[in-house]
Known about the structure:
By secondary structure, the chain is mainly alpha-helical. The chain has one domain. It has 9 helices and 4 strands; from the N terminus they run ββααααααααββα. The protein has helices at residues 15-35, 41-62, 64-68, 85-103, 107-132, 153-160, 177-199, 203-218, 234-258, and strands spanning 4-7, 12-14, 228-229, 232-233. Helix 1 (15-35) packs antiparallel against helix 5 (107-132), helix 5 runs parallel beside helix 8 (203-218) and helix 7 runs antiparallel to helix 8 (203-218). The longest helix is centred in the middle third of the chain and has 26 residues, at 107-132.
Amino acid sequence: MYPELLDLGFFSVKTYGFCMALGFMLAWKAVEMLSGRKDLGDFLVYLMVSGVVGSRIAYVIEHWKGEFAARPMEIIRIDRGGLVFYGGLILAIAVFFVWCRIKKERPLALADLFAAVIPLGHACGRIGCFFYGCCWGRISDSPLAVSFPAHSPAWYDQLSKGLISSSAPHSLPVLPTQLFEAAALLVIFAVLIAVYVKCRRWTAGLYLVLYASERFAMEFLRGDPRAGVFSLSIGQAISLAMAALGVLLIFIEKRKSAA
């Protein structure tokens, strides 16, 4: 856990924010290299902002009672972590279709382009999660497990559950699901880039199916508090919907290519 990348007293750089910015810049450059277009910069900024806003809204809704009801001003402190990726993805998709309609762009072609690079930026964000300490995994005696220091999110959660005392110097060992997911996202990125370079299609639907499958499985390893939908976490419920949408997109593209 390393929340401060740079601290000069009067100025500090949060590792979480730096990782998010790095992910955005890498995704931006990847889009330019794959498309050869230099006119998408403003659009990518709109998508980034809507992604952050949507992610924060989803997190606040999910954790309102526990974190924000008594301290509503904390809502704006995104530098401390607290984003739900699916919330950002949903709002960014809405902005994406509005922009495509205004600019008369072909949404499916652009969706294939952007979907190919989203996992790269997302992987950087997950590394930022690890440095901040959010989105931790279940308590485990695995050799891969890590302990976060006192006053970290995992430490506070375990303290509230009576699993550790207030004098504990660190949390109980937990699975570093942030790094697990970052690694999985890089694999998905490699697959999507290979597909996109080869045929310039399929990647939007394939991204939704691959990420939804990875996220559904990863939720079983998460240890942080999350809202539930029946016997599933909210992330798993949304994953099922995203996977279904991905299959539909693949079917649509297959029909178009056969026509």
